[in-house]
């Protein structure tokens, strides 16, 4: 074995350790880079040479070589910021990005995002964050993922299709003294001249729910309840009403007078309770006898509200907390009849008026919701995330961005907190995984190793010089 081989072994050490110092320098340079994953250099020995010894043959190494530079895809700490669009990943996964003018997909752990002039959610390099568009009413994902563009600065009005009223009707309440059925006590024409459409003595309890027409105009729908006139136990009559002025088919806007005593009366019916105060039956008819049962699990009534709705009135489901499926089944929360004060426990209606976006929020599932001036919070997008079988196989492109390779395998793209993906934290950024103290220790050992290898070369050179000096 030639003495010159020790020279090349020393050179291999210098080369490998020089590359290692480059890795350390890159880590230290990125100690404050958002989402940066520190790298680690590993080495392996070079193929050994077989030499003959007194005991046979043995092997002598030929130096070292840089084996691999791997990234530390461990969880880093979080930095709190004052920007909603700064997002950190707590757990596995990468954000999915699309570079401008391409259909390429890139991936990053850095969530320092902003909204650009086109209302797109982008990173500092202008790459658009990918996500699923959401249905404004149900919040369900619509189609596949694509660019997140927050162009819904205006929330168009949504017509009410369902209203819910959960109330307790006092079982000890006395029936009204009126001898008329509850629906007959409603008098839009004020025939008795008392200035009231219905008197406070004509019912035991009432509740008003605000609903919206197709143009976003709000309307008050009021329900009145009273013990049934037919004297059956545990039975309550109810009527569904609105202001007669908002019933154009039965109201003369010129004279300002209702043309029908039933103007504004949208529906009437009854609720039958069991002896223990739970719903056993509900019936409701449109402005007349109670004959209609369960439409799409709930009772339904119609309302005109607008002149152009006289021919095509809107249909609204009435939910008292019980569904029809061959029989009435009470839900967890439902209208009841107990011996306590009549009170409205819950009331709501879907739909809303037009609104302008004022703020937005991003939850741990990556759902981006707009907060509008009409008081509504509307889901707009849900961010998607990618997961790889082999993170180490990803190709670093700089800018805290990675590209898939054959070694990494294709990405599995899903919403956050599914398929092993982590959750998202808004107003936070993931810090670098670089520990500067550890890097300084590595720097010291690398420096000493480099010096030792240089000594190997220097000593080998002196040995060669000794051989040269054998001949004078």
Name the features.
472 residues, mainly beta, Tick-borne Encephalitis virus Glycoprotein, domain 1, 5-stranded antiparallel β-sheet, 35 strands, 12% helix
Blueprint of the fold:
Blueprint: H1 4-29, E1 39-45, E2 49-53, E3 56-60, E4 64-71, E5 78-80, E6 87-90, E7 94-98, E8 106-108, E9 114-115, E10 121-122, E11 128-134, E12 141-147, E13 154-155, E14 162-168, E15 205-212, E16 218-227, E17 235-242, E18 251-252, E19 257-258, E20 265-273, E21 279-285, E22 299-303, E23 314-319, E24 322-324, E25 328-330, E26 343-349, E27 355-362, E28 367-372, E29 377-383, E30 385-387, E31 395-398, E32 401-403, E33 412-414, E34 423-426, E35 428-430, H2 436-468
Parallel strand pairs: 14-23
Antiparallel strand pairs: 1-4, 2-3, 5-35, 6-34, 7-8, 7-11, 7-30, 8-32, 9-10, 11-12, 11-29, 13-27, 14-26, 15-16, 16-17, 17-20, 18-19, 20-21, 22-23, 24-25, 27-28, 28-29, 30-33, 31-32
Helix pairs in contact: 1-2
Produce a short descriptive summary:
By secondary structure, the chain is mostly beta strands. The protein is built from two helices and 35 strands. Helices cover 12% and strands 38% of the residues.
Helix content: 10-25%
Q: What is the second-level CATH architecture of the largest domain?
A: Sandwich
Gap between N and C termini, in Å? 25 Å
Secondary structural class: mainly beta
Output the radius of gyration: 38 Å
Total number of domains: 3
Taking the sheet with the most strands, its summary is: 12 strands, antiparallel
The CATH superfamily name of the largest domain is: Flagellar hook protein FlgE
pLDDT averaged over residues: 88
CATH class of the largest domain: Mainly Beta
Tell me the CATH topology of the largest domain: Tick-borne Encephalitis virus Glycoprotein, domain 1
- Low-confidence spans: pLDDT under 50, at least 5 residues? 288-293
How many helices? The count is 2
**What is the global morphology?**
rod-shaped
Oligomer: single chain
